[in-house]
Specification:
Elements (H helix, E strand, L loop, with lengths): L2 E8 L2 E7 L11 H8 L9 E8 L2 E8 L9 H15 L5 E5 L2 E8 L2 E5 L4 E10 L2 E9 L3 E6 L14 E2 L9 E9 L2 E8 L3 E3 L3 H15 L6 E6 L2 E7 L5 E5 L2 E8 L2
Parallel strand pairs: 2-3, 4-5, 10-12, 13-15
Antiparallel strand pairs: 1-2, 1-18, 3-4, 5-6, 6-7, 7-17, 8-9, 8-11, 9-10, 12-13, 13-14, 15-16, 16-17
The structure holds ligand LBFN2T5F.
The site of ligand LBFN2T5F has 18 residues, from α2 and α3.
Length: about 260
């Protein structure tokens, strides 16, 4: 049996998109199949899978990490998903996309896609460690969990082949860890180790968590725009007066075809 798929990325955080409008093509997408699809040697390759399902009169983004685990939300993924819905399903902008972290509103202006990522939750101080380094970190939820650590040098995070050590009581289901340095006023750069995917070239929810942590540390007025550089590009994030986080960045669809996986 062959299934249609597309391949896309946002700032090089890459995804396999699986159209499944009536939810019957992929049924209960197993973790094993997600791992096979995301395998960079034997599969299509990706940091995760975006399954597109029609639900309650709209579209639901069923997001899975490369290891097959489920996450509540994916910020780069939701922009790619919006571009897919616009170009292949005829959905106009602005559009609403259902996720496990609630409904997100997506808009586009040329090549810039903006997601209203909703309200962040700032949940206090924690800590993260890699071999030879421990940092205090801010626990921020963007619907999914993040630990944001400001570091002296992004290289201090090391190879990030393993997940950074974190407080299991704070993050019983694991955590996405962002390492951040300052590049200028309202300008930061980050690396990320994603729960379920390892180190990736970008993380949209991570960039939002980082901008929130930076704005708090800076005492910046709400509405201040932050530039967040990631290894795969740049995202722009604003925490607004009405407590919403707006994230703008690119969304690319680069291939489509049929897969037997
Ligand atoms: N890359 C994503 C986040 C994907 C989910 C994350 N790994 C988790 O398990 O929460 C993004 O762009 O936000």
């Amino acid at each position: 049996m062959s299934y249609p798929f597309l391949k896309g990325h946002g700032t090089e955080n890459d995804f396999v998109v699986l159209p499944d409008p009536d939810g019957t093509v992929h049924g209960d997408l197993s973790a094993e199949r997600v791992r096979a699809l995301c395998d960079r040697r034997a599969g299509i390759g990706g940091d995760g899978v975006l399954r597109a399902v029609r639900r309650d009169g709209g579209w639901f983004m069923d997001y899975r990490n490369a290891d097959g685990s489920v996450s509540e939300m994916c910020g780069n993924g939701v922009r790619v998903f919006a571009r897919y819905l616009h170009e292949r399903q005829g959905e106009p902008f602005p559009m609403e996309i259902r996720t496990r972290a609630g409904v997100k509103v997506l808009d586009a202006a040329g090549e810039a896609y903006t997601a209203d990522m909703g309200e962040p939750e700032v949940l206090g101080e924690t800590s993260v460690s890699v071999p030879n380094h421990t940092w205090s970190a801010l626990h921020v939820s963007m619907g999914n969990p993040h630990a944001v650590a400001f570091v002296d040098d992004l290289a201090d995070a090391g190879l990030l082949l393993d997940a950074p050590t974190h407080d299991e009581a704070v993050y019983p289901d694991g955590v996405n860890v962002e390492f951040v340095v300052r590049r200028g006023e309202h300008h930061v750069a980050m690396r990320v180790h994603e729960r379920g995917s390892g180190e990736t070239r970008s993380c949209g929810t991570g960039a939002c968590a980082v901008a929130v942590a930076a704005a708090l540390a800076d005492g910046a007025a709400r509405g201040t725009a932050y530039r967040v550089d990631v290894p795969g590009g740049t995202l722009h994030v604003t925490w607004t007066d009405d407590d919403r986080v707006l994230m703008t960045g690119p969304a690319e669809l680069v291939a489509e075809g049929l897969t037997d996986l």
